[in-house]
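Progress against Task 2.4 (sequence-to-structure conversion) is shown through the following example record, which the project officer requested during the mid-term review.
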Amino acid sequence: MMSPSQASPAPQAPPEPPAPLSPDDPVLRAAVAMFRRDGWIDARALAQEAGIGRATLYRRYGDRDRLLGEAIWSIATEEFARVHPRCRGRGADGIAELVHALLHTSARLPAMRRFVAEHADTALKVMTSRDGVMQHRMTSTLTQLIRTEIGEPEDTDAATLAYAVTRVGESFYYRELITGEPADIAAAAVVIRRILR
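Structure tokens generated for the chain above:
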């Protein structure tokens, strides 16, 4: 039998990601424009466009994965603000409708299609890693939405449900990369509706 000193340490929770950059941040604006144009961010070119050195860019804004996450999150928040008022459902149906609309919008963005097609490994890391900004912020947003639309569940908590919803959406959106089967956003909405009811 292992002594307590020999037991494996408990897994560490991921660090809290930094707060979102201001929409007016000039580097973020340049990063978003570059991502929309190229489906990628070249750190050297971004530093030149922003008029700062690459070392300064990394020191202030983190590595390229962080910059990609910030740019994509900025686009996602714009799309959320555009799509959310159009969703007419309430409760579980409304959340499933919203997630379906956001995934569908993402799938139609040329920049996202190029990012996933040409940089699949980086796309999965940026979009789904627990250490990145995207999953944490998406889960936090869905947690608040679940509390508003459904309330705090009795047998679990809103954050756990939000994490499950996020993972379901990711698994169906990136299914071709994960299993080789075509993406199925409609199926994601069905499963999410079942989870939340």
